[in-house]
Design goal:
13 helices, 2 domains, 19% strand, 498 residues, two-stranded antiparallel ribbon, globular, alpha/beta, disordered N terminus, twelve-stranded mixed beta sheet
Length: 498
């Protein structure tokens, strides 16, 4: 079992590719394999996940024997384990195969699930769950990733294995406009409201009344974040489980700089319109929606607010008119893929606060909506395995370009894993608020050290040792989202002599 919680395992294999044969059985009969079924096609991912857990030093004395059980002690028989992949969207706007670098691949989920199965020793429950973007199809992602085939395999072997869409609602989106809303069954464990109040990362933030959430009705998000309240609605499954194993995709992100494990917990919420995504306005007026403010920007915001109001108040004709005006607005004010708006830039001072609040609740939340005492031994177990085999750079999280990094990361502390991810992407963790601030939370801390204390265990010799000493030429140089360009890259700062 890991005793040094600041040691992260990092595997790099440039030849890694995703297998296609579902449900992604191993292609080799490893001594510890819980099932004798072997794939008829190559599956390099399974062996890579296995090597990653070995690099993490898990149950190392038994490695290579039938008794090797790397998650022993991290996962116990009889427990409920939540596997939380990144299932944001089933499609890519430019590439029919782009989902491979937008969402967590099923082969990574399957390999990890096998080792969870071993640790449970036949007793317990595994739940793969997420709350994708509201205009996404959970069922389409289940088919793409082979999650239904994985579930059926485990259920046939006696493991209680479930798939859950944690959303309460799914939207049909056309041309960027909501035209239909469909109620879903939601989380069978229900939803729990938490109020972090003064312990929220928003406690000292002046944006109350100007937050924008995920829907046209901005009054909803501001009701939950005003008057000293900072409320979140969380899926009961995420609170009731014994262990969360976060399985994010390695990508850049327009509102957070990067999306790894900390950002991935947006998927445990029950209503995205309780989540502040940005603060309306420019920094000069206390907002972070865009860098500057002028008459053109003010006109755009006024027209957008009026159009959203029409869309929600006039069913049928409202959305139709909204689509027409949105297309016209793109020509006049610029497309969102080319122009900074809606908090899609390095000055976003809102999204990171919301994400870290969700991480606090995941670690310390109780089923009755209260929070445990903020002590390390009271934290829920929350582990991370990052899928960076084909990562996403540029206009992430939904429209990135592929970067075949061949990388997998594992650790037992999410902020530390994200700091490693940021550094290996070529970014400065101190320049990415969601990473930097994760080590500075005063109330309900997420880590008890500075990211410079992190050490790596890796099959790449250049990555072994203290994270901060890894040379720049040994890391990747991901292209940031254009709204973050020139602000987070280590190379840019080194070239400037900073």
């Amino acid at each position: 079992m890991i005793t040094n919680t600041v040691r992260i395992a990092a595997l790099q294999s440039p030849a890694l590719t995703y297998p296609v044969e579902q449900p992604f059985h191993p292609d080799t009969a490893f001594p510890e394999s819980p099932s004798p079924v072997i794939a008829t096609a190559p599956n390099l991912v399974y062996g890579a996940v296995r090597d990653l857990l070995r690099l993490a030093g898990l149950d190392c004395d038994r490695f290579g024997t039938a008794d090797w059980n790397p998650l022993r002690g991290l996962v116990n028989p009889g427990e409920t384990i939540l596997l939380k992949p990144n299932l944001v969207k089933e499609s890519h706007p430019r590439d029919p195969e782009g989902w491979r670098y937008v969402i967590t691949h099923g082969s990574v989920i399957r390999a990890l699930a096998d080792y969870v199965w071993m640790a449970l020793n036949g007793r317990g429950t595994v739940i793969v769950a997420d709350a994708p973007q509201t205009d996404s199809s959970f069922s389409a992602m289940v088919r793409l990733l082979g999650l239904d085939a994985i579930r059926d395999f485990y259920c046939a072997h006696g493991l209680d294995f479930r798939l859950l869409d944690l959303r309460k609602e799914e939207w049909l989106n056309r041309d960027g406009v909501i035209i239909e809303r469909r109620r879903l069954g939601g989380d069978p464990r229900g939803y729990i409201a938490f109020d972090l109040a003064a312990a929220s990362e928003f406690a000292d933030h002046p944006g109350a009344g100007r937050y924008y959430g995920a829907d046209y009705d901005a009054e909803e998000v501001n009701r939950h974040h005003s008057g000293g309240r900072h409320e979140y609605l969380i899926a009961g499954t995420a609170i009731a489980c014994d262990v969360i194993i976060n399985i994010p995709k390695l990508k850049t992100h327009k509102k957070a700089g990067i999306t790894v494990s900390l950002k991935n917990l947006v998927g445990i919420n029950g209503d995205k319109n309780w989540l502040p995504h940005h603060t309306e306005g420019a920094p000069a007026t206390g907002g972070d929606g865009h860098p500057g403010d002028d008459s053109r920007r003010r006109l755009e915001r006024t027209l957008v607010a009026q159009t959203r109001r029409l869309s929600s108040q006039l069913p049928g004709v409202g959305p139709w008119l909204h689509r027409k005006l949105r297309r016209m607005g793109g020509h006049v004010f610029g497309d969102t893929e080319d122009v900074i708006r809606s908090g899609n830039w390095w000055g976003n001072d809102t999204t990171w606060r919301m994400c870290l609040d969700l991480n606090k609740i995941a670690l310390y939340g109780n089923l009755d909506g209260t929070l445990r005492e903020a002590r390390p031994h009271n934290r829920k177990r929350h582990y991370v395995l990052v899928d960076g085999i084909v990562a996403g750079e540029g206009r992430g999280p939904m429209n990135p370009d592929p970067l075949p990094a061949g990388v997998l990361l594992f650790g037992v502390n999410p902020p530390s894993v994200d700091a490693v991810a940021a550094y290996l992407m070529g970014f400065d963790p101190d320049c990415i608020p969601i990473v930097r601030q994760a080590f500075r939370c005063k109330h309900y801390p997420l880590a008890d050290w500075d990211w410079r204390a992190i050490e790596l265990s890796s099959n790449n010799p250049a990555w072994n040792g203290p994270l901060s000493t890894i040379p720049d030429d040994a890391t990747f140089h991901f292209e940031p989202h254009f709204g973050w360009k020139g602000q987070i890259e280590r190379q840019a700062y080194e070239a400037a002599g900073i």
